[in-house]
Amino acid sequence: MNPAAIVSLAQLCIDMHRNERRDIGQAIANFLSAWCAWEALRIRLIRVIIHKHGWLINDADAALKIV
Fold first, then answer.
1. How far apart, in whole angstroms, are the C-alpha atoms of residue 60 and residue 49?
2. What SS3 string covers 17-34?
3. Is 37 exposed, middle or buried (0-12, 13-18, 19+ CB in 10 A)?
4. Could you list the residue range(s) of the whole structural domain that residue 15 is in?
């Protein structure tokens, strides 16, 4: 997931939370959206750190697919 998509998804979660809808379906959607944004950000950060330690991006991606 590219950084702009992560930021967009995170902003969407913030906006949905501010609307404070008490609908359980909406709460589940908010949680899943926030979780997806977090996972995308986490993987991207790990990928960048691995690359900074001298690995090629392709090797970093292959290692992350195993985990």
1. 9
2. HHHCCCCHHHHHHHHHHH
3. buried
4. 3-66
Domains contained in the chain, number: 1
pLDDT confidence tier of residue 55, bands split at 50, 70 and 90: very high
| Whole-structure pTM value | 0.58
Q: Which DSSP category does 49 fall into?
A: H
Measured CA to CA, the distance from residue 49 to residue 28 in angstroms comes to 31
Give the residue from 6, 65, 15, 4 showing the smallest Cα distance to 39: 6
Q: CA angle at residue 51 from 42 to 58, to 5 degrees?
A: 90
Q: What is the pLDDT of residues 8-45, one digit of tens each?
A: 877 877 777 777 666 777 777 778 888 888 888 888 89
